Amino acid sequence: MGATEHRTSRGDQPRRRFVTRTDVEDAAAAGRPVRVGARDVLTHEAAQRARDLGVPVERDGTGARPAPGPAAPTPPRPSATPAAAELRAVVRSAVIAELGHEPAGLDAAIDRVLAGRPAP
Asked: 69-94 burial string, b = 16+ CB within 10 Å, else e?
């Protein structure tokens, strides 16, 4: 099961897709690079697996390049700032709109991601 492009009912803009470890392993087995579009998300696990397997990651037709290396750890920052609170609300709404429901653990997952995000 590979990553595929889905079209929204609102127009011809492709929906965001998540490229996972399974997609990387499928690409490795097929001897091809992983292609990641502008709106796509390459999961951390997929990036790590691409590095481990030596699978090139192509972003937006810019050509093959190695999977990104691990990001430097950043200290958690409070999410109480107005910008962080607004970003959290936007991300939460986008996830629910994309999935059509609120998945269990959504708030905890958003908090983990935002905690590792550098301050603006």
From this structure: eeeeeeeeeeeeeeebeebbeeeeee
Report residue 55 as tokens.
């699978």
pLDDT digits (tens, 9 = 90+) for 12-61: 667 788 999 999 999 999 999 999 988 889 899 999 999 999 999 998 75
- H or E element, residue 111: helix 106-115
Q: Which two tokens stand for residue 72?
A: 């430097």
Domain extents in the chain: 1-70, 82-115
Q: Which two tokens stand for residue 106?
A: 């959504």
**Phi/psi at 26 (5° precision):** -65, -45
Q: Any idea which residue has 């929204």 for tokens?
A: 8
Predicted TM-score (pTM) of this structure: 0.44
Residue 42's DSSP bridge partners are: 19
